[in-house]
Amino acid sequence: MLLLLEKKVSRCSIAVDFLPSSPPGYRTRAIKPIWMLNEQNNIDPYYEDAIDKYFEHSDNPEFNNITYPEYYRKYKITLNSSSKQIYWKDKSDRFVFKRKKEILVRFQHLTIKNAELFFYQQLLLKKPSRTETDLKNNHLTYRAAFQSFYPNEYNNAIQDIFQSTTLKKSLYLENYKNLIDNLLISTHQDIKIIIKQQLINLIPQTILISNNTILNTPKD
């Protein structure tokens, strides 16, 4: 409807940038043109994305302990310098300027049910890093790395899942018993007791699979 009326979908007083946050094997890559590959031997055939540029940020103390979102909120990366503004150079000789006004950064919405994609994103957003290896730090999975670096957040998530599962199980059993009672209201008392006991014995064992059960699954 907005497009039909030629209205803007959104209006904002500040710039917004959507940044990738997926592991290397899941990110979309743009291929460099053939002339560039012919002129420069032994180079990566793909353009660097925002994550690659973040890992190549300068060793200057200005960038110590800077996170991925913070880097793009506060700084602008260009290939050349056209102003007298103070700048730094990253490890690929790109110019990095500090923004006069911070921008908003947005990322793909992921939940725990996305498993490793979710934990990679959380590490990338929270943990200052310079390489992909820094995110895992010798752990076999991003889940294990997140649990190691942020144990409180991980344990809180586990506790929330446990409480949610317990509540769902209680509601399920209560509803089942209420259904039995409603079916037997008009039944003779002696038969009612017998049937009720039989039906209670037939209550199936509940297997509740939450979207967040990935936190409780074993490594295998």
Describe this structure in words.
The protein has 220 residues and is mainly alpha-helical. The protein has two domains: 16-110, no CATH class; 152-215. 40% of the residues lie in helices and 8% in strands. The protein contains eight helices and five strands. Helix 4 (116-126) packs across helix 6 and helix 6 (142-149) crosses helix 7. It is elongated, with a radius of gyration of 27 Å.
Task: Note the main attributes of this structure.
220 residues; mainly alpha; 2 domains; elongated
Radius of gyration: 27 Å
**Spatial separation of the terminal alpha carbons:** 49 Å
Total number of strands:
5
H-E order: EHHHEEEEHHHHH
Describe how the helices and strands are arranged.
Elements: E1 16-18, H1 34-39, H2 50-55, H3 68-74, E2 75-78, E3 87-89, E4 95-98, E5 104-106, H4 116-126, H5 132-136, H6 142-149, H7 151-183, H8 189-201
Helix pairs in contact: 4-6, 6-7
